[in-house]
Amino acid sequence: MEIQILEEKNNPLLERREIQLRIIQDAGSPKIADVRRKIAAQLSLDESLFVIQNMKAEYGMNESRCLLKVYKSKDRLQTVEANHVIKKNGLVEGSDEAK
Fold first, then answer.
1. How many angstroms separate the CA atoms of 19 and 96, rounded?
2. Can you spell out the DSSP letters for 8-70?
3. Is 99 helix (H, G, I), strand (E, B) or coil?
4. What secondary structure letter does DSSP report for 97?
5. What is the pTM for the complete model shown?
6. CATH T-level assignment (fold) for domain 2-93
7. Which residues in 11-45 are b (16+ Cβ under 10 Å) and which e?
8. Could you state, in order of their start, the residue ranges of all structural domains in the chain?
9. Residue 95 confidence (pLDDT) above 70
10. Is residue 49's pLDDT more than 90?
11. How crowded is the C-beta side of 13, counted as CA atoms within 13 Å?
């Protein structure tokens, strides 16, 4: 799996960076957990401070486009992001997920 940064911009109002990525995978669509680990390793990010907002596969190609949101603090991430995005990224703590 190869990850390329297409666009990066700062969003000072929400205290985050927004990064557009192109993911070139070997075969099939990768799982979000695998992509998160690869992004954290390649961009030297803390996995608890970013979320993958969406990941869309390009039709007929082994590529996906991805929107990544990198926050300055975990509290800010929890405040700004929707619960379903936090759950999708595996950042849920405690027993709330079981309900």
1. 29
2. EEEETTTTEEEEEEEEE-SSSPPPHHHHHHHHHHHHT--GGGEEEEEEEEPTTSSEEEEEEEE
3. coil
4. G
5. 0.83
6. Alpha-Beta Plaits (3.30.70)
7. eeebebbebebebebeeeebeeeebbebbeeeeeb
8. 2-93
9. no
10. yes
11. 0
